[in-house]
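Give me the fold.
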Amino acid sequence: MSLKSLKNLTRESLKGKRVIVRVDFNVPLNKKLEITNDVRIKRAIPTIDFLVENKAKIILMSHLGRPKGQIVNDLRLTPIAKHLSMLTGKTVMNLEDCIGASVDKELHNLRDGEIALLENLRFHKEEEKNDPIFSKQLSSLADIYVDDAFGTAHRAHASTVGIAKFLPSYAGFLIEKEINVLSKLLKNPEKPFVVILGGAKVTGKIEVVQNLIHKADSILISGGMSFTALKARGFNVGNSIIEDYDLEIVRKMLKNAEEKGTKIFLPIDFLVAKNISPDAETEMVKADSIPEDSTAVDIGEETISLFKNQLRKAKTIFWNGPVGIFEIDQFAHGTNQIAITLAEMEGKAITVVGGGDSITALEKIGLSSSISYLSTGGGASLDFLGGSKLPGIEVLLEDN
């Protein structure tokens, strides 16, 4: 995969040019609208710095949350602009919209090396529809387009695909890094290669398992996907999350893994509760004994031990998705133990973690710096590892 890279542009080709950059500043905010995890913002800084140093006029654009085409004050990018100003040491111009006469007027005053941040792209419903008129309006703001938002590369939106039809388009440094790291997992991982998948959603992860059966030595499955797999094996899972329409696919997946010699490990015990709350009463049960009126909220101690033993044998590890409802402290033990085990592998194995929740779990207990690589793309990294073509990457290929 050969990308048209930003690094190949010279100072002469960038100086004085307006460069519009799709970044992924979709970061978590608390009730005070304070950023609780700024990994995605920090990872965009190398591309921004490169453009500043080469005297481009930088126009950043991003979405935040799911405003569904409406203006939502709590989803404005004002706190992002303030935080980015602090991180870069440069004042970031915070615009009130992303298209229109007022935007044109403010950007007219943008000087070489200065940074502007457009307002939330998803305040316009045309963004997610990849509307060609909206794409052209965005493109009219600049001379060059750079995509550095790997987290949205699996979406064919106006700011990731549509705009590339109107401007010379390049991959930023973050996208290049993401593709290089994830490509190595697919092509040449150091063995043993262990994959651990969790999280509530099943969709997307089945494709990852199917694509990695030929490449991984062990696949550890927890969260929503484990309940679907356990039900496919005839177990009762109580009120735990399942996706019934995937049962037959999961049965074939498990059989295929067995035939290929890839070991798939499912939880053997769970922590369960009758309600999802911090003060809920819990009990530990075997995987085949989840009560009808209970929900599995975390993996159990035997499963933690099983998973940790597999991870400690690995030379390459990919983790996506917490193994329990980690947002509630008493249900976070399993996820924390997986995070601690990966951190202990520092220097012994290549560890790659993808997905906002997994990274948040690491950040919460102060272990993110011990991981080899934190991927900013949850769904995008899963789609890539599942063998899908990412629309936001396809438009940046050399032969496009």
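The mean pLDDT is 94.
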